[in-house]
Amino acid sequence: MSTSRTMSAPGGQEKPIHVIGGGLAGSEAAWQIARSGIPVILHEMRPVRGTDAHKTDGLAELVCSNSFRSDDAESNAVGVIHAEMRLAQSLIMACADRNQVPAGGALAVDREGFSRAVTAAIAAEPLITLAREEISGLPPADWGRTIIATGPLTATSLAESITLETGQDALAFFDAIAPIVHADSIDVSVCWYQSRYDKVGPGGTGKDYINCPMDKAQYEAFLDALIAADRTGFKEWEGTPYFDGCLPIEVMAERGRETLRYGPMKPMGLTNAHKPDVKAYAVVQLRQDNALGTLYNMVGFQTKLKYGEQASIFRMIPGLETAEFARLGGLHRNTYLNSPLLLDKTLQLKSRPGLRFAGQITGCEGYVESAAIGLLAGRFAAEEQWGCLPSIPPATTAMGALLTHITGGHIVSDDEPGKRSFQPMNVNFGLFPPLEPGEIVRPDTGRRFRGKEKSIARKQALSRRALIDCARWLEVSEAVEAAQ
């Protein structure tokens, strides 16, 4: 898709495309449309109406972690989708890069600075009109092309309208929010700074996490307290399943005494700077949450414990005995479509041409995944407005693999044809088409890799193929040459 604003094409470019929702997906979709030369009206209901999780009226507010996860584009699927979005001139990635904070091999951002940057960019774009209003139902037909990117916190009235249109029930799950601690309240005489395996990532030093060690007795006592603690009531959300990628810490604790030690509290790759000869039984990690370094979030500690319980239990962690919390954990409801049944390959609602969906409401999971689907939806809508057929990214790319999952890449049970098997998914190499035989061979001998080397070589080959194919799809010749 060309980004020129003077390209000639059939009429209709003056008619705006509407985008509903000012989160990561909606902001990215609006940006992509505007950069193609087509006007956009971006509808965001905050602050007219708030949500259970948002605290501000800023666009692209991050309500959970401040991490965009791995930025390794050579052997990690998340890092690959980062790189692909940068090639596509993503607003979300540009603002994330400008507001990054140290986080080892991950790309983490100052959440307030990031949201301000996205909001400012949208406000400065002359082809985007930001309308602060709630859209309570499906858009009227005379709006023309529209993208709904209302995310996991879609207003009830709009969700009901979608259900009436599609005839399908929306699925839902809980997403819990991790607590944030004031850095100066952490006892660094007990804790130490270190990234796992001393890994140095973008903007990092290899000492980007604060590590709180536990011995076996402390771990067992902490586990007992977690399991016995009071939790927030389910109310109307009773019976909603959790998404395994974001389980509350107390739910993980109930799954076995060792679950946390092999999950968010694993001690591997960490050496206590104060007691290098004593191996910690478990370790709680905290990651920098803002550019000033004054706030740290508890990695993997999303929770639905009641506030009073949270403060007392988390202060059982060595180094956090006097911790002051800038924000305690919380809970919000996520809603998503049965997208493989309802959407076509360009994210368009099959029952209503011209109406697209983007972001987490489509069943992708994660910040960058949501923004990537917004990027694609925006490009697809703009290309149609210019009178062209939407150009779908190859399934070998990270964006294409994620799109394929959303629009039909899940497993359907022949034994239970009426059962809905589609579930939210983060981007991962399991979504990528397999490599051809012979693509993973040693360059010096031409022989196949074995064991762990084979796994590493496979990821590197998938990453390299994805970036080459994405650059070709975007017609960025210099990127093709760099990736080869």
The CATH topology of the largest domain is given as FAD/NAD(P)-binding domain
Strand element count: 16
Helix tally equals 13
How can the largest sheet be summarized? 6 strands, antiparallel
Structural class: alpha/beta
- What would you give as the CATH superfamily of the largest domain? FAD/NAD(P)-binding domain
Distance between the termini: 23 Å
Q: How many domains?
A: 2
**Unreliable spans:** 2-10, 413-419
- Helix-strand pattern: EHEEHHEEHEEHEEEEHHEEHEEHEHHHH
Q: Do you know the CATH architecture of the largest domain? A: 3-Layer(bba) Sandwich
Rg measurement, Å: 23 Å
Mean pLDDT: 87
Percent range of helical residues: 25-40%
What's the CATH C level of the largest domain?
Answer: Alpha Beta
The largest sheet has its strands arranged as 10-11-12-13-9-14
Textual characterization of the structure:
The chain is α/β, with parallel strands linked by helices. The protein folds into two domains: 247 residues, FAD/NAD(P)-binding domain (3-Layer(bba) Sandwich); 157 residues, Elongation Factor Tu (Ef-tu), domain 3, CATH 2.40.30. The chain contains 13 helices and 16 strands. The strands form four sheets. A six-stranded antiparallel beta sheet has the order 10-11-12-13-9-14. A five-stranded parallel beta sheet has the order 6-2-1-7-16, with helices on one face. Strands 3-5-4 form a three-stranded antiparallel beta sheet. Helix 1 links the parallel strand 1 and strand 2. The longest helix is centred in the C-terminal third of the chain and has 24 residues. The two termini are 23 Å apart. The relative contact order is 0.16. The N terminus is likely disordered.
